[in-house]
Known about the structure:
163 residues, six-stranded antiparallel barrel, alpha+beta, single chain, Thrombin, subunit H, 4 helices, 31% strand
Amino acid sequence: MLPSCVDLLRDSSENSEAMSALPDYLQQAWPTERQLQRFKFEQPIKVLAFGVEVARGSCFDISIGGLGASVAGPIQLGQEVRLEFTLPPQEESLLLKAMVRHFEAGRCGFEFLTITPEDRDAILAYVDAHNEAPTPFKWTKSADVILNKVQRFGLRTQKVHAE
């Protein structure tokens, strides 16, 4: 089992060996290749929490495991929500339970928590029909940028817990 990222960062301030292990840890914890291929998907989306609409936005990619969207509203990392969107040419909306796995500057990554076989088939049919030349999502930031962000997070966490 991998140590927690917070433990590794806490240890890194006292131990250069722990800091040198950070890139290996990150590769295991967050591989650079997605497990599920995402495809271009441009549709409006509603984000609901406790049955109430909390945000609206626009999707930019989708897979059977989740979707990416730009949203305006009070969204929090780790928040459980329901996503409502339509897969053209269908008129009926899908309503899927999801969790906010990434949130930065209005861009959200949502992981579907439950998906029925029918919803899965509908997403796959949409992808087949609308992505003639699909390309997988690629990381846009270098490993150094990601590692610097993780290190800054660790330092902030240490300061908060030291008080």
